[in-house]
Write a structure and sequence with these properties.
This protein is an alpha/beta fold. It is built from 7 helices and 10 strands. It folds into 2 domains: 163 residues, Spore Coat Polysaccharide Biosynthesis Protein SpsA, Chain A (Alpha-Beta Complex), CATH 3.90.550.10; 83 residues, no CATH class. Helix 5 packs parallel to helix 7 and helix 6 runs antiparallel to helix 7.
């Protein structure tokens, strides 16, 4: 009896202006996957040039939202088995070898989760006990696919059993702490427009919001293992939450003023 052939994998990556990160992302999966498909939504930097120079097939497609763009990338792949990555993510060596062993023959399951571990700006690897998200990123597209949601990019696993991989992906989500603060400010601006809670409940929270959020991030989410970076990251999260409360209150005040106009 001859051994079964390895299962071919397509790595799909969506991009826009990721020239500083796309190269590392692609190089980390070379030799593991059968093809790399980059779906770019209008980069004005060297993203496309770098991806193509590393052997990726680049497809240009206007941005329709997270879920639809990742589904489009699935459609562009030539293989059913997909390893989906974002351009700011790096497959670590342990995960590389785990996926290679898993796909040496037909995997037992049709979808597998992997931990996406956050990396501080300026650091080259996740800290000890780094916080993470645990997402399905390796899967058979003939069985499961990304949802259509324009906002959330998650795979709809339906009734499929989901496996758990032990290796991890390093997530370089922020280029700097200024980038983190700007992203948090943007999120809280949007959230302030949709809050429905009474103003008095927000005032009650004001004295406790910063210390409680700081403790949650520093202790519960284990940022204490990150030294000064952990302290500052916890501070930024707590700062964003207290700023969000005051933005909520300003929005409530504006609503009342508009109602009396």
């Amino acid at each position: 009896m001859t051994a079964s052939a390895p299962v071919p994998i397509s790595c799909t990556i969506i991009t826009k202006n990721e020239a500083d990160r796309i190269g590392d992302c692609i190089r980390a999966v070379q030799g593991l996957v059968d093809e790399i498909v980059v779906v770019d939504s209008g980069s004005t930097d060297d993203t496309v040039k770098i991806a193509e120079s590393l052997g990726a097939r680049v497809v240009r497609h206007d941005w329709p939202g997270y879920g639809p763009q990742k589904r489009y990338a699935e459609d562009m792949a030539k293989n059913d088995w997909i390893l989906n990555l974002d351009a700011d993510e790096l497959v670590l060596p342990e995960l590389y070898e785990e996926i290679k062993a898993l796909t040496a023959s037909r995997p037992e399951l049709n979808c597998y989760r992997m931990r996406i571990r956050n990396v501080y700006p300026g650091q080259d690897k996740p800290r000890l006990w780094a916080d993470y998200h645990n997402y399905v990123r390796l899967y058979d597209r003939s069985k499961v696919r990304f949802r259509e949601s324009k906002v959330h990019d998650t795979v709809d696993t339906r009734d499929e059993r989901v496996g758990q991989l032990n290796g991890a992906v390093a997530h370089y989500s922020a280029r700097s702490y200024a980038h983190i603060r700007a992203k948090l400010d943007s999120y809280t601006d949007l959230q302030a427009k949709v809050l429905k809670k009474p103003a008095w409940t927000l005032w009650v929270r004001v004295p406790f919001e910063y210390p409680l959020v700081f403790i949650r991030y520093f202790i519960v989410r284990r940022h204490f293992t990150g030294g000064w970076d952990g302290v500052y990251s916890s501070h930024l999260a707590a700062e964003a939450r207290i700023k969000r409360l005051f933005k909520f209150l300003e929005a409530k005040k504006a609503q009342r003023a508009g109602g009396h106009g």
